[in-house]
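ping. complex inputs:
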Amino acid sequence: MASITMENIGKSFGQTDVLKGINLNVHDGEFISLLGSSGCGKSTLLRIISGLERQSSGRLLIGDKDMDNVFPKNRSVSMVFQSYALYPHLTVFENMAVPLVMRKLTRLQRLPLVGRFIGGTSSVRQEMRDRIHHLAETLDIHTLLNRKPAQLSGGQRQRVALGRAMVREPEVFLMDEPLSNLDTKMRAHMRTELAEIHRNLGATFVYVTHDQEEAMTMSDRVALMIDGQILQVATPREIYRSPVHRKVAEFIGSPRINILPGIVTNPEIMEVCGIKCPAPKGLHGKCFIGIRPSRLIPSEQASGTWKARVTNVEDLGSSFLIHSTLAGEVRTISRMDSRSVIPQVGDKIYLKPQPDCAMFFDSEGWNHNLSSERPAQDIPVSALTFSEESHESAIAI
Amino acid sequence: MKIFSGIFRHLLLLTGSVFMLIPFVVMLSTSLKSQADIFSGTFSLLPGEWGATANYLQVFTKLPILDFMLNGVIVTTSIFLIQVIVALPCAYALAKFHFKGRKLLFNCVLWCLLIPPQAVAIPVFMELYSFGMLNSYAALIVPWTISVLGIFLMRQFFMAIPDDIIDAARMDGMGEVSILIRIMVPMALPALTAFGILSFIAHWNDFFWPLICLQDVKYFTPPLGIAYFKTDDSGISYGPLMAAACIITIPLLITFLAARKKFMQGVSIQAGVK
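pong. complex structure:
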């Protein structure tokens, strides 16, 4: 098995820098997701790991071996493509056999007709057949081996593509949005299946996706990429709870986190959308606070809350999403349990953040709580309430 | 309205196809008539005086028609094979590799499509003369081995094959030559068939070039061979001439009918990869 080390990898196409100094360590046997919106360079990074593309700068090591000038076929790496990229003129069996034929047989042995008479060919071919049949059974495609890809459904093609990648037992699996062409139900199913395959194989998985749900549910760690840079690499739990940057917080979590602009007026006091609240130590000037939709819910009391007007209500079945507008045209989303009293469009409501849930971002967007230069919080923010002139009481966050 | 436009469309197509078919019908009907019937001054589709037996017999007795056809087969298959060997790598490179000057090279291919073969006939003739290659199979084959049409056709088809498949093949351990042979060619079979038929028809029917570069009857291709009936002292024997023309059309018909489905896939726009 193999770990992957990326040292300062850069890639530019002409004038545009697609990757800007990527540093990432993927541990042996880890399932890591490269998460980001389209065009953030995640697929390019994957192609660099595969060897299909060469980095403009930096170093790539797979299993401590420098991969400079190592062709894709000589890396112990398999790839599953978004389009599956099955060979349309070959049957499922032949598709799965290609990686083995190209590796296990010599050029002479591969020759049509003549090849089979060269010593050892038949035993190698038998071995290959056995392995493919065995793998096909575990992937539940053994009844399809004689079909052509055009005769398969999306989910079946996906399995064949997986089988083709697995058949030669590589140390590293690269997956480029492999589930994005499947319907929702199939996707959820394949997600658990992929996670299982990963557990059984123990190989290193690098999984590219723009779907945070996929990244969060399957990965050991998530690397969030924005504009050709990795902003944060952390476990799904950590990246959700303590995003290092506002952009990370905005990307992870659905519906999107509420970002409210604020300004620190006096030391440790900030004004957010017309209401004063305590600010952590060291935060100054313009800043933002982030509150997850499930943590910002309507409340009865007027004090210590934001006044808001409901602009839209979405019924998701198990919960409701309340879109509302605060003072200064700041839009928020709240997630409410379906059993609670749901406000109507146009209603005036009071939004109350739950204790201990706010994230503070400085003017550049970095998470203030995580900035190592500054001293850590002395007092939990939730313990503080400030009284203030315009309202009876200030907000507690 | 819809019916009217349908009738109009079919009428137009019918006129076109009748126009195309008339020469063939005349050829066939003339080959069945006797010399006297042909010159009788009135035209009838069916022979007034049965001359077919004599005409066709004359073709096989007076002419080494089978030798001509064998020559035709040798020349056309050699031309096609070499054309494919040249065109496939060129088309693959032009379609899928990114290198400096790719656009310029492809434009050169397009410009070459505009050059009529007659325009370069004399320089090519001189060239072959200086190599001492005139009056041989080589003279018939060599000038046609690089087909820009073939490069163009195959390049267009290769463009439609997704890059992912090629990348997958690279990951699976194939080199570029393997990709070309194992992946690109099987996928491009319809285009290759279409090109094969075009090439076969063009060179089987070619009269101009063999006429220029050949003197020795033993290298004669079918169209040149049947022209023998024309140079006969007794004038033009139309009956046998048309009978020979009918015979040499048969291989074309058979090839086309056999490969019709692939040919249509290859030349239609939707051709490509599902």
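Residues 311 and 363 of chain A are 28 Å apart (CA to CA).
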